[in-house]
Every structure is written in structure tokens, then in C-alpha cells.
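Let's sit down with a protein and look at its sequence and fold side by side. We need material for that, and I hope you will provide a protein of your own picking. Once you have written the record down, we can walk along the chain together.

***
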Amino acid sequence: MPPLKFGPRRGRPDYESKADLFRALAHPARIRVLTIMCAAGQPTPVSEMLKATGIESTLLSQHLAVLKRYQVVTSERVGNAVYYQLATPVAAELLVMARRFLDYLDDQTPAPRQPVAVVPMGRPARPMPVPRRWPEQPARSAYAAAGRN
């Protein structure tokens, strides 16, 4: 296995290594691709990832290259097809932990507050009136706006 491009073995502080890893994961398309690979549980051809994500092949190729550069995934060419898989099962665990963290945040986040009307003392509170919507105005062309009908 080639030496890690990030990690404590490179003589860098741990926080920088973690930042590099999160930078590699910092795009929704990359997380989607990793999720597809986790669900497959086996090497996944690029053609399947293209169908599942719906993104262009050149863009998918760039995202896969980033994941490969940071050794999150590995690839193998079989004939004309290229298959990708997670470099280690720990990568799948990282996605599970991220989901658990997000679920925790959802449980801890209080419901949004409703706006409360401030009423001067001595007057009974009334519900706030709903703002009135003006009827839609027809669009005017630049020609008509200049007064040249």
C-alpha cells in the first residue's frame, strides 16, 4: 500500500490530517458515491454510479479521483470497466457515525419559535394581522417603461 497522503505518519498534526480527510469528503456528490459503494457491498462499476447519481461522467470522474487521491476508495480496471470500492470498512463506519451525529443534532434542536406580537401594557393582546398581498402587476417592457407606447 502506498504511504498515506494524510495522517499522522506524514509528521503533520492530527488536526491537519483530519481537515484533509473532511476536505476529501466535503461534497454531496462524493458522499452520495460513497453511500452507493456502501450499499453495494462489493466493487461498483462507474456505470452503476453514473445511473444512480445522474451526474456527468467527467464530474463523477473528478470526484472519484479526489476520493482515490485521499485513499478513501480504491479502483480496479476490468476490461473497459473501472470498479471502485471503499479502501477500508472504516470508511463505511464513518458515514454511519455522521448519520448518527446528524440524528443527534436533530433530536437536540428545539422547534422553531413562533413570532410573538409585542403589545403595550393595558391593551388586550390580539393576533397579528396577516400581511396583505398586492395583486401581481403585469410585466412592463423597457420600451413601455420609457413611455414609448
Observations:
- The chain is about 45% helix and 10% strand.
- Residues 73 and 86 are 4 Å apart (CA to CA).
- The mean pLDDT is 80.
- The longest helix spans residues 89-108.
